[in-house]
Automatic annotation (TrEMBL):
PANTHER family: TRANS-ACONITATE 2-METHYLTRANSFERASE-RELATED. InterPro entries: Methyltransf_11, SAM-dependent_MTases_sf. Residues 20-110 form the Methyltransferase type domain. GO terms for biological process: methylation. It comes from the Bacteria. Pfam families: Methyltransf_11. This is 2-methoxy-6-polyprenyl-1,4-benzoquinol methylase, mitochondrial. Keywords: Methyltransferase, Transferase. One of its GO terms (molecular function) is methyltransferase activity. The keyword Repeat does not apply.
Length: 225
């Protein structure tokens, strides 16, 4: 199981499906969904990310905006994807409400979030400790379901496994997600290297292997439950 297969399972058939990718980053998911015929609109608060996404997927639409204030009318989309992004939002509960607002009746929201566990998390936390914000994202999802704002159509946990040739490849990977991490990498490299080597396994080819558990929720807004 992986995130892309979950998107397919949740929204199939993708051809012609109007999807909003909230926290789209540089457009990797948008590119994959567009290739499958989806009509994708990406949103990210980072203007650099929006420029990169526009260059990568010129046939999609991208907007610079926050997840808590989406610049779209009610019911503009058939579904929403929030992939590895909810924990970066200052108010994740508000982001879920906005996602619900912009999808039509019967639409679904797929939220995939990294958990505060696993070897990838252990290697990352010396650079940036996301333990609190990752937990807050899970609390926001649970609270929204408990309040009756959504029903949960699916709740599944799986692992993303990544292999890196060396420490440098890992550092480039995490800095690409958030360039602000480069300062922490520069200032704390010895401790970061120690954490990386302690957390990583090795594969037969000598690569460094890190696992990140992810939890996926498929949420249906109450009006479409």
């Amino acid at each position: 199981m992986d995130s892309l297969s979950l998107v397919h399972d949740t929204f199939a058939p993708l051809s012609g499906r109007r999807l909003v990718d909230i926290g789209c980053g540089p457009g990797h998911l948008a590119a994959a969904l567009t290739a499958q015929g989806a009509v994708v609109t990406g949103v990210d608060p980072g203007t650099d990310a929006v420029r990169a996404a526009t260059a990568r997927v010129p046939q999609a639409r991208f907007e610079a905006a926050s997840a808590e204030a989406l610049p779209f009318p009610d019911g503009a989309f058939d579904g929403a994807v929030i992939l590895n992004a909810l924990h970066h939002v200052p108010d994740p509960r508000a982001a879920l409400a906005e996602a619900a607002r912009v999808i039509g009746s019967g639409g679904r929201i797929l939220v995939v979030e990294p958990l505060a566990e696993g070897s990838f998390f252990a290697a990352l936390r010396t650079i940036e400790d996301e333990g609190t914000v990752r937990a807050q994202a899970q609390v926001a999802i649970a609270a929204a379901v408990a309040a009756g704002e959504f029903t949960c159509a699916r709740d599944v946990t799986f692992a993303r496994r990544e292999t890196f040739a060396d420490l440098g490849a890992f550092l480039e990977r995490v800095a690409a997600v958030d360039p602000a991490r480069r300062a922490a990498i520069r200032d704390g490299r010895p401790a970061i290297e120690a954490a990386f080597l302690a957390a990583a396994g090795r594969d037969a080819a000598g690569g460094y292997v890190l696992d990140q558990p992810l939890r996926a929720h498929v949420l249906v807004p109450a009006r479409g439950a």
